[in-house]
Every structure is written in C-alpha cells, then in structure tokens.
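My current task is to audit a protein record that another person submitted. Please read both lines and tell me whether the tokens look consistent with the sequence. Do not assume that whoever made the record got everything right. I have pasted the whole thing underneath without changing anything:

===
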Amino acid sequence: MTGKREAIVKNFINALNVLKKKPFRDSQFNVSDILIAAYDVGRNNIEFEDDERRIIGPLIKDLIKPIDEYIFSIGYSFDHNYTGSNLILRSGLQFILDNCKSFPVSQSETLEDTFSYLQQTESIQTLDEALKDWKSSASPLTDENVTYSVEEITRPKDVPHSHTWWY
C-alpha cells in the first residue's frame, strides 16, 4: 500500500466505524464524513483489496438506513448555499454505489442487494431532483445570494462525466 492510498482507505473505513458506533439520531455529520471519504476514494481511483472489501461491505450494509435518511434530508431541504458540498456528497454516494456494489456482505449477498433499498425509498431521486432543479434554475452562477464559487460547482477532472449534477 502506498502511503496516500493507505490513508484514504483508512479514512473511509474509520468514517464507517465511527457512524456504526453512533446512535441513529446523531448520525447526520458522520454520514457526511463517509460520503466525503468515499468521494476521495473515487477521485483517487482506489481499488480495494479483498480484506478491505470484507470489512467495508458489512459496515455499509449496517449503515444503509442512516445514509438513506441523510441523502433524503439534504435533497428534501436543499439549500443552494451548500450546493458545492452537496455535489461532493452526491458524487461520494455515486462512488459507493459504483465501486462497492460487488463487496460481500455475507456468503450469498453483496452490497448490490443492499443498494436496492435506496432505490425503494427514493432518497437518491429526491436529491437528484433538487440538484436538477438547482442546475436548471435561471441563473445559478449569477444569483447574488449564493455563497459558492464557480470552481466549487464545476465537475473536477477526476470525477466521471456520468456525474451529471456538476456544471
């Protein structure tokens, strides 16, 4: 393991472990930490090793409900002043969905099975609709009330084009 890779993986696993130890009602900020760590994993094209997959899979399965609730809450009460952060959180979630779906949860189950829960609850759709509405608004880059910069809402080069919520 390289030092940078090791630090990124450790940060992601630690964020998952911290949330697992928290009461559900106190989990909001820790879910944000997980999604930001996942964003770092994705932007750095981290490939997980088998032992890491076996650790991460069950942790994400155990945490899917607080993750789902958090995603729904930021979509439902979308604040355009936090758009830069919300774009990162949405990409972090997408990196988890894309990169972790094959991770084992048990002998016969993978995270892909767990991720179907997110589709059933429509939390992702709620956030995506909020981001789409924000993006299609008349002048998101010239609104004098916004507190983000153009750089904060422009898709970074190391984020896939499939992350269409970015500018």
In short: The helical segments are 3-21, 28-43, 50-76, 83-99, 111-121, 123-136, 150-153. The chain has a mean pLDDT of 90. The first helix runs from residue 3 to 21.
